[in-house]
Amino acid sequence: MGCTVAQIIKSLVFRGERSGQAILILASGSNRVDEAKVAAAIGEPIQRATPEFVREQTGFAIGGVAPVGHTNPLRTLIDADLFTCEQLWAAAGTPHAVFPLTPPELRRLAPEAITLDLRA
What we know:
By secondary structure, the protein is of the alpha/beta class.
């Protein structure tokens, strides 16, 4: 694709420990997510989601979760580093398909998302 790792959007699904709510984190491919920062932002600790939970909540299998178009509405957090790139690449529903978008397009697709520094 000719892009840097930082331009790849990692769509990570976690589960709120108390609420059981799905939390979608859209992170730069070069960053590791600080789970404590996420917990502070949403007001509860998070845990890794099972593959079954991810598919149930998003409609996608792990490795192909798109940033939008989910089965259920998801609380979404976006890594601020994604907005430093001119072009981004995201999974398009399968582990073998991606699509390009710009940071402004990502913002339009996820207007309710909270943007934070999520780097560990």
